[in-house]
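Bench log, entry 3. Co-assembly request; chain sequences pasted below exactly as received.
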Amino acid sequence: MVGSNDRSKFRLTVRYIVATALLLVMVFPYLYMVLSSFAAWNQVDRKLIPTSYTLKSYIWLFTGGESGVPRPWLHAFFNSVFVSLASTLLMMVFGVMVSYALAKVKFRGRSFVNNVILFQMFFPAIILLVPNFLVIQKVGLYDTYWAMIIPKAVSLWAIFMYTNFFKAIPTAFIEAAKLDGATDLQILYKIMVPMSKSITTVIFLFLLMERWTELLWDMIVVRSDGMLTLNVLLSQMFGPYGAYPGPMYAASVLLTLPIVIIFLIYSKKFKEGMQFSLK
Amino acid sequence: MGTKNNNGLGWLFTSPYLVFAVVFFVVPLAWSLYLAFTNWDLISPDYQNVGVANFIKALGSPAVRAAFFVTFKFMVVFVPLVTVMSLVVAVLIQGLPRFKSFYMVGFFLPYLSSGVVASLIGKGFLSYSSPINVFLREQFGLKINWLGSPFSALMVVSVIIAWKFIGYYGLILTSGLESIGKEVYEAAAIDGVTETKRFWTITLPLLYPAIYTTLILSVGVTFGIFTEVYQLTGGGPNFATNTWQMEIFNQAFKNLQAGYASAVAIIASVVTFISIYIIRKLLEMWGKRNGWV
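Structure output for the full assembly:
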């Protein structure tokens, strides 16, 4: 039996080595991005692992380099934070509200609302790009924060996830609370939401990630420099003729780092929630 | 009390969605169906009804025809790539007795990336004097214009998108693998079934629901490709990466042909809906025929 034990030990070691190697390959683009953002400019995209380092790329980002006119990177960063948080929070609040009604409130027309949501979920959203832009323009929201927040204030996916989760919470809890005189709003925020912490983490992170990295919509509904999100500014500054690879990597770090940090903070809860939501 | 209807509360709590659905779904839908039959240019106050002219023009346009085929080309490259790689990731980390969550979190990190950032890194990595190109030139005399030739541009974009999704799908497949009981494998081991055979006869069939999920998700991804293509190729070279979103964006917001773009969008939606429906049915049939469902 000792031989077979050795063999499985060997196998496990190989498995760890292969997994680690693959993981390194997968996170290498991130490493490359960080290293390149600190690399001396004559080494950016010239060396896989740069040998000399500088803060020049970051300084350029905030001073504008030789032109002396800094692009609004910090401003764009705060635009991104504001827009992403506002729109994600609205998606969460509305998601919880709508789902509570769909899962736990009996009302005439419930199955109708359910069917409309399902229909919209399976409807190819591609058709809505142009007319949604026109709606925003028509109501006078073009080039405002609202243009980036309101059309992304409701998430069908969040409603779908919460509805399924709420359905699994026993109605007895709600009835007991009602006997104690709790209102529906209290039940929602004191029972339903606290009971769905892990799935809330998953929904919040997925919505935030998606919102943070949105390009197309934020690009078409906003025009002035001071309104652009970081993702859009990055895309515009380093398009086909971008000549400053160092600052490009620095700006990429600026965009990537916050979302990675938030994810790592919540990663444990995220894992629990994922295990639940995938079952 | 539990069976009493509460109509006011129900409608009140669902009203955010209902208002949203009217403003950003029903009205836009009707609007684009109307616009598709006009020649509106997004700016001028007056425009004419042009009947089905936009649709006829779209069906004859090389860019639209390219969008139709490009989506399926992406599917043929991207879907198998992301499926196989996420299976590899899932099988690798599923059996790890320690540090499993470390690997899970690590593999998931690319999913957090912005398509813009991923594209810029990819572009820098493949730029003319980048280490990989210098190596290929000096060692093999290979001069590859990665984004300049149709085939490699398609491959580069596919790999960049796959990079993002491998860890996420790997996570879905891992939890699929975990739901398979150990007893099944133990029984098979006693019966002397080899490991390779076990994968094909036990793992894969029991994993079918999870694989079905990732396949449907990844097919959906191919119909929505925009950011990477916009950032890297603009749909080129010669429409080789011109996706539906790219084409609609170009027509509506670059050429300012709102009417024509709406017609293209309607065609795109119909193609998307039918394709996904057929792919779903085929996958279900495939599962049923093998007795996996």
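The CA atoms of residues 67 and 243 of chain B lie 5 Å apart. Chain B has a mean pLDDT of 89.
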